[in-house]
């Protein structure tokens, strides 16, 4: 099995395990971008320049020419949207639903509110132009939600 297939079928799935529930901040996004560039560079190794004949590190454009890989953030967005639809359809006695819909009883700490998972869902919906709608009500209509999930998956093209 080539190194690239190992990356797609093992490493990427291992790294993205449970990504449906992650609330992303800029720090995590930056780390994933570094990972997304570093691992393929290690797999393909340096290349000898055609003009100078010196060894050089592969740039992002060179990596895109060598292989096709879905953008790691698009994969995460599609998984997160699909998971949000599942969570809104489970029964009220389940913990996932109570955490999603429930309101905290006590006051939060001072300062800026923490970035929540629901904020990521809203940002993902803005990217596919469903931003003004209430995502919880939208997910109750299974056919429209399924269309939305397939629309997000179509954005995988790098």
Please provide a written account of the structure.
The chain has 158 residues and is mostly helical. It folds into two domains: 59 residues, no CATH class; 71 residues, no CATH class. 59% of the residues lie in helices and 3% in strands. The protein is built from eight helices and two strands; from the N terminus they run ααββαααααα. Strands 1-2 form a two-stranded antiparallel sheet. A hairpin with a 6-residue loop joins β1 and β2. The radius of gyration is 20 Å and the shape is elongated. It starts with a helix and ends with a helix.
Average pLDDT level:
79
Biggest pleated sheet:
2 strands, antiparallel
DSSP strand tally: 2
Gyration radius, to the nearest Å? 20 Å
Q: Tell me the β content.
A: under 5%
Q: Distance N terminus to C terminus?
A: 24 Å
| Helix and strand sequence | HHEEHHHHHH
Share of helical residues: 55-70%
Summary of the model, kept short:
This protein is mainly alpha-helical and 158 residues long. It is built from 8 helices and 2 strands.
């Amino acid at each position: 099995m080539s190194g690239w297939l190992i990356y797609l079928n093992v490493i990427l799935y291992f790294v993205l395990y449970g990504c449906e529930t992650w609330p992303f901040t800029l720090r995590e996004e930056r780390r994933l971008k570094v990972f997304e560039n570093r691992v393929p560079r290690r797999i393909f190794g340096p290349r000898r320049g055609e003009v100078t004949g010196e060894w050089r590190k592969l740039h992002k454009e060179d990596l895109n020419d060598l292989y096709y890989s879905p953008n790691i953030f698009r994969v995460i967005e599609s998984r997160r949207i699909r998971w949000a639809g599942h969570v809104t359809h489970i029964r009220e006695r389940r913990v996932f639903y109570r955490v999603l819909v429930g309101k905290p009883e006590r006051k939060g700490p001072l300062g800026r509110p923490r970035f929540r998972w629901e904020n990521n869902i809203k940002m993902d919906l803005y990217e596919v132009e469903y931003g003004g709608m209430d995502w919880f009500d939208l997910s109750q209509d299974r056919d429209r939600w399924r269309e939305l999930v397939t629309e997000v998956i179509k954005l995988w093209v790098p």
